[in-house]
Structure of Ferritin-like domain-containing protein:
Amino acid sequence: MIDPFKALEILSAADARRAARRGFLKAAGGGAVLLGGASLLSGCYGDYPDQPAPTPTPSPTPTPSAITDSDVLNLALNLEYLEAQFYLYAVTGAGLSAAQTASGSGTAGGTVTGGAKVDFSKDPVVGAYAREIAADEAAHVAFLRTALGSAAVAMPNINIDGGANGAFTTAARAAGVITATDTFNPYSSPENFLLGAFLFEDVGVTAYKGAAPLLTNKTYLEAAAGILAAEAYHAGIVRTVLYAKGMSTASLITATTQISDARDLLDGKPTDDTTRGIGADDDQGLVDDNKAANLVPANVNGIAYSRSSEQVHNIVYLNATGANRTGGGFFPNGTNNPNAALRVGLSS
């Protein structure tokens, strides 16, 4: 039988040791956990050799914020800002007003570098198409801003410059449309304008299609489908006119193939999914492998392709490696998406 007084002495000693350990940990400010905690805790448990030291639990990796309908619409709004500014400058020589680029809560929008009016007197038909597309893109901006209300993000800084240091020249050089010392100015002629529009429109179609499954509100989904359809009409017009002009100026058709190949390089090689319209070769120029017209870039099922946020960002940032997650190209400082997963292109 255990002597009760002896037992009390044992318990008292154990309490004293525990109190001492608590005092040490308190004085260390919790450093046992943060600074080499495993070895320190194992030393504390040395008083009880029959009790295994606890295994440190690693800090859980933060879970990215769930993507909301508002996040998806703001991603679309960033792209619409870019398109609207390009087309409005080409048609009118001026872009969106300050009121149309501020956030829903009043934060001022970013700056636009470049932009100029195109002389469409050389081709009034292209001028008419450009005016209609510009009106549609401005309407898309207004619609999305209204739908988002105070959640609408401000326009980020945008580069649509046609000079030597502009995003269009960078894109054209990378694609091989021009040499490393030449400049590509999309405002210098109706043909160059069409190539600039070609660079944007196909990306817009695939971006809306890729984002559609992320939307949960059916009203927003239907609206997004309507904008996707409008972008597809625009892309079809641009591709058709370029193909017609390419009958006499073959370099235009060659340029579309070069631009498409460059976008394919930028957006990587996703695994083919013919049902959803996802594929490694999700971008084509105006002629196929048989040199026939290719006015609709679609897969074997006749389905338009989808791009993820990451792919879209890599294209508009002109970033082939995916290493630059902060901006570049047409968005020098990145897009203004409130959800980081969409802002830097990490969502699939």
